[in-house]
Specification:
CATH architecture of the largest domain in chain B: Up-down Bundle
Radius of gyration of chain B: 20 Å
Largest sheet of chain B: 4 strands, antiparallel
Oligomer: heterodimer
CATH class of the largest domain in chain B: Mainly Alpha
Distance between the termini of chain A: 46 Å
Strand order of the largest sheet of chain A: 1-4-2-3
Order of helices and strands of chain B: HHHHEHHEEEH
Number of helices of chain B: 7
Distance between the termini of chain B: 57 Å
CATH superfamily of the largest domain in chain B: Phosphate transport system protein phou homolog 2, domain 2
Helix content of chain B: 55-70%
Number of strands of chain A: 4
Structural class of chain A: alpha+beta
CATH superfamily of the largest domain in chain A: Phosphate transport system protein phou homolog 2, domain 2
Strand order of the largest sheet of chain B: 1-4-2-3
CATH architecture of the largest domain in chain A: Up-down Bundle
CATH class of the largest domain in chain A: Mainly Alpha
Number of helices of chain A: 7
Low-confidence stretches of chain B: none
CATH topology of the largest domain in chain A: Methane Monooxygenase Hydroxylase, Chain G, domain 1
Chain lengths: 200, 195
């Protein structure tokens, strides 16, 4: 078993942390369903990465809540916030369980998968190569939804996650989580690999 | 023959799973909105949805279990059951978030610190027979443009629908929207009685 990391106290805004946790849990659910329904191991592994991030955030959130309580009234009010934090963590655990269906080789019945592949939107995990035309551009200026019918829903840079990116500049070695039509994602993948000179 | 029955059953399993998945995601959305907007009304909707998910989930499990399981299908069906369990867990968590909102006195002191914008509010209105919106799609209805309110969910009987541009509005639909308090009256007028 891997060693568990110690989480150190850092002062954070409770409101922003809670909203970040909400965004992460939603991203995890999207990625996890897609991983299961399209039997995509790479996506399932990203869900597990996000789960680790979430565990750290819950600790940090609770530390901040504890230090914020000065009296009885504070304790009563902050308990509600702590509860929401732990529920958000439950949701992310649920997403990790879906990813587990793929990672433990249980799988989803092929007939059901087939139906989903016809109806559901596709998600993909895409690595950006050095010579890609999308490197150095912001998500916003690429305007992928209009150009090719795909959208970048998150960027992972090493251990750092950017969710719903807009102004972020895409760098080589970034890992993109993208949503879109099968053909749109294929185009994006080609461009990210540096195999296409334009997005079209 | 047997093959035809199989396909039909799998189609029903898929439909149920899609509905469970969509409903649980909608509940999450609504629960966090209830929290961030401190809206008891939205929190109540989440609780209603929770009952619906419990029902759906039982039906789904029965359906999966009543498939004649061939040994080679067992794994794939187990995956489906696990996925169903997860949608139920998500729905439960959303319902509990809604409970945190409902437990609070108004205005809720716990949530003031996470509240998005004090001026923002949630409105719920029933589409009347003579509303100009009846028969229009959401895109045609131009609710955000006319009222500044953003549609969160449409309830039709015991169905909750995520707003999509092509969703056609019917009389009796309950439209739930959020936005700035000054759009409230325009919203009620547009949905409720027209003119």
């Amino acid at each position: 078993m891997k060693p568990v990391e110690k989480v150190e106290y850092t002062p954070v805004s409770v409101r922003e942390t809670l909203i970040l946790m909400k965004d992460i849990s939603e991203l995890m659910i999207d990625l996890a369903y897609s991983a299961a329904l399209f039997n995509n191991r790479a996506l399932a592994e990203e869900v597990m990465e996000l789960e680790k991030r979430m565990d750290t955030l819950v600790y940090v959130l609770n530390m901040n809540l504890m230090l914020a309580a000065r009296d009885r009234e504070d304790a009563e009010t902050l308990a509600g916030v702590a509860k929401v934090g732990s529920l958000t963590n439950n949701i992310s655990d649920a997403a990790a369980d879906i990813a587990g269906i793929v990672l433990n080789n249980i799988g989803i019945h092929p007939i059901v998968r087939e139906v989903f592949q016809r109806t559901e939107e596709h998600l993909a995990r895409i690595e950006v190569k050095e010579n890609s035309i999308i490197a150095g551009k912001t998500v916003e200026e690429l305007d992928l939804a209009a150009e090719i019918g795909a959208d970048i829903i998150a960027i992972r840079r090493g251990k750092h996650w950017m969710i719903n990116p807009e102004k972020e500049i895409i760098l080589p070695e970034d890992v993109l989580m993208a949503r879109g039509t099968a053909s749109g994602l294929e185009k994006l993948e080609k461009a990210a690999r540096g195999e296409a000179g334009n997005l079209g | 023959m047997a093959e035809g029955r199989d396909t039909g059953r799998f189609e029903r399993i898929c439909n149920d799973l899609v509905e469970l998945k969509d409903t649980s995601e909608l509940m999450m959305d609504l629960a966090y909105s209830a929290l961030l907007l401190n809206s008891r009304e939205l929190a109540e909707e989440v609780r209603m949805l929770e009952e619906k998910v419990d029902r759906l989930h039982t039906e789904f499990e029965l359906l999966v279990l009543s498939s004649c399981v061939k040994p080679e299908d067992a794994r794939g069906l187990l995956g489906l059951i696990r996925m169903g369990v997860v949608t139920e867990q998500i729905a439960d968590a959303a319902a509990e978030i809604a409970e945190v909102v409902l437990r609070g006195e108004e205005p809720h002191p716990v949530l003031r610190m996470v509240i998005k914008d004090a001026d923002e509010t949630v409105e719920r209105a029933v589409v009347s027979e003579d509303s100009p919106l009846v028969g229009k799609t959401l895109k045609e209805a131009r609710i955000p443009e006319e009222t500044g309110m953003w549609v969160l969910v449409i309830r039709r009987g015991d169905r909750w629908m995520r707003p999509r541009p092509g969703t056609r509005i019917q009389a009796g639909d309950v439209i739930i929207a959020s936005g700035y308090a000054d759009g409230e009256e325009d919203f009620r007028k547009l949905i409720g009685c027209g003119s």
